[in-house]
Design goal:
- Helix content is 35%, strand content 21%.
- By secondary structure, the protein is α+β, with helices and mostly antiparallel strands.
- The protein has one domain: Spore Coat Polysaccharide Biosynthesis Protein SpsA, Chain A, CATH 3.90.550.
- Strands 1, 2, 3, 4, 5, 6, 7, 8, 9, 10 and 11 form an 11-stranded mixed β-sheet that branches.
- Helix 5 packs across helix 7.
């Protein structure tokens, strides 16, 4: 079974999301896990306390990292789910996006060698062609891309060509949770970084969570791929609001891992793994 985890604080956007995707949800075996953000976030009718217990402090509201509550709900209450796909409430399908993610997650790929073509050419060792199980499929976007505010302010929404393939071992990449799929065994490693008013940071929950997830993927001998599944994203968020939200995080991102915040982040990740271990 697939769990679709979608965080939202906008009823109209959420209604449009469900209307747009319902046909594909009917095609696939899907359970929609909606995380309602706000003063008191809820997921599938349950409060943070009901889902997290003594680990409730791991959930931060008023930011898209609140989707952690959806991941926790799947881990604790939906043992039948084997694949999690998380999306924002303003994306639309491009073809069979869900099946494209599922196909990507069925692959075994090389991580120590990089093919320079879409096929394996002369000299590519046969022994490494299926060396690692794909556990994370990073999707991409038609329409409005996932820009940071300075880029959006200066360049608008330029056309880009997306890389499609394996992210090699030891290589980091910006993980966007707007269109992201992963296997159940990745949940303990998929903690979105603390953000929101309580922290004074925003817009880097998935980026920094993705850095740590990729490190774990490499350490465990698994693989991540990108570019196999696409969604349509037509809504550009307000660039000036985004700039205000990103100011502090932009500088921290350039020196990732330095400072007290990242000590807090690592402590929260450790406790997230403890929580997941209780319901594994």
């Amino acid at each position: 079974m697939i769990a679709i985890v979608v965080p939202t604080i906008r009823p109209k956007s959420y209604e449009g999301f469900i209307d747009t995707w319902m046909g594909w949800f009917d095609v696939h075996n899907v359970k929609v896990v909606t995380v309602w953000d706000g003063v008191h976030p809820m997921v599938c009718g349950k409060t943070i306390k009901e889902v997290m217990g003594k680990y409730s402090d791991l959930i931060y509201n008023f930011n898209d990292g609140v989707r952690n509550l959806g991941f926790a709900y799947v881990q604790r209450f939906l043992p039948e789910v084997d694949t999690i796909i998380t999306m924002d409430d303003d994306v639309e399908p491009s073809g069979d996006t869900l099946n494209d993610h599922l196909d990507a997650l069925e692959r075994f790929v090389p991580t120590s060698w990089l093919s320079t073509t879409s096929e394996y050419t002369r000299g590519f060792p046969y022994g490494v062609r299926t060396e690692a199980e794909v556990v994370l499929s990073h999707g991409v976007w038609e329409g409005v891309k996932d820009w940071d505010a300075p880029t959006q302010l200066v360049r608008g929404n330029p056309d880009v060509t997306f890389y499609k393939g394996v992210v090699p071992k030891g290589v980091l990449f910006p993980v966007c949770s707007m269109n992201l799929a992963f296997k159940r065994k990745m949940i303990p490693y998929m903690y979105q970084a603390p953000m929101g008013p309580k922290i004074g940071l925003d817009r880097f929950a998935d980026i920094w969570g993705g850095i740590e997830a990729k490190k774990d993927i490499d350490r465990l001998g698994w693989a991540a791929v990108t570019g196999y599944a696409t969604v349509k994203h037509t809504r550009a968020s307000n660039v000036f609001i985004n700039l205000q939200k990103e100011v502090k995080g932009l500088a921290m991102n350039e020196e990732y891992g330095k400072g007290e915040y990242f000590k807090l982040f690592q402590e929260k990740r450790k406790r997230w793994k403890e929580f997941c271990g209780l319901y594994s």
